[in-house]
Design brief:
binds FE2/S2 (inorganic) cluster, 13 helices, 9 strands, binds iron/sulfur cluster, alpha/beta, nine-stranded mixed sheet
Amino acid sequence: MIATAPQIGPPLALLAELSYRCPLRCPYCSNPLEMTAASGEMDTGKWIDVIEQAADMGVLQIHFSGGEPTVRKDLEDMVERAETLGIYTNLITSGVLLDRGRLQGLADRGLQHIQLSFQGADEVVADRIGGLKGGHGKKLETAKLAGEIGLPLTINAVMHRQNMDDLETMIQMAVDFGAKRLEVAHVQYYGWGLRNRAALLPTRAQLEHATAIVDAARERLKGVLVFDYVVPDYYAKRPKSCMGGWGRQFLNVSPSGRVMPCHAAETIPGMEFETVTERPLLEIWQQSDAFTRFRGTGWMPEPCRSCDRRELDWGGCRCQALALTGDAAAVDPACDKSPDHERIVALATNEAAAGSDDFEYRRFGEGA
Ligand code: SF4
Ligand code: FES
């Protein structure tokens, strides 16, 4: 099908994946299965150029991410440049490499927000999932430091079958740290998450229990803590609007400069991604095949094409459609109008019931 290229405004946000290096090894990492070694990372000058191009395009937010973005010693320079260009800066971090000096330094250079991920509330569980002994303790210290420095904090609680019992405690932890926002995000199943799905996917009953906990806490903590709640699509009737629609609000720049509509887009076979070292960011955003292929509604199959939700969920998630049907252009099977929906629900139900605890840790590529 010929992709349509509707007129498109600037992206809201840039996700700058500065490095795939990370001291943690979470089995649901959103990074690709094959990762760029440190030598493939763009240098400071190239990243600054990306930030300047993003500002020229009208990008309002930059999320510094990875891997672990604080492995880059030049993070401060990037934060400062974004700040001087009037872009809101957020650091998405595991927190294990930060100390008071570094965090204060980042805040002094203009960092406006920190998003800290937790693998659980129990030290043994959390360290096992993250694959780093002592990691949980370091995260607790960083959360406390953020409060002392006065950096607005979001806690990101990644939930799955093996840490579901920690949910209440994680909510309380966010309150105790003075976080303003808690993202309770069930693992999404592509890349490493898909590879480890049998060990991570909750049962429907577990998911319903977690949802009830979040609903009750949301009510109880009104005005104290804002909740973002992301459920695994497998038990949904309608898919999420992944990334706010393909190529509509976000762009990801990988450590080596490849520009993608989402972090899992590389899983789509035959899709080529241009790099910011070869073509201006604006042109890639507006014209590249990778961004126009699934932008808008022209690419949609039926029943999406004539569905009244097509401009609400933009057809769901292309990477999930690929992972579950083998075709990135298929109806997202999370939707109950998809011919694959019942098969996916059955698969999820059986897999979650079988429940293995063994997972494969994320591995970083050779030469890291
Ligand atoms: Fe969304 Fe397509 Fe399902 Fe309609 S048919 S709800 S557009 S995925
Ligand atoms: Fe790629 Fe949803 S993760 S479109």
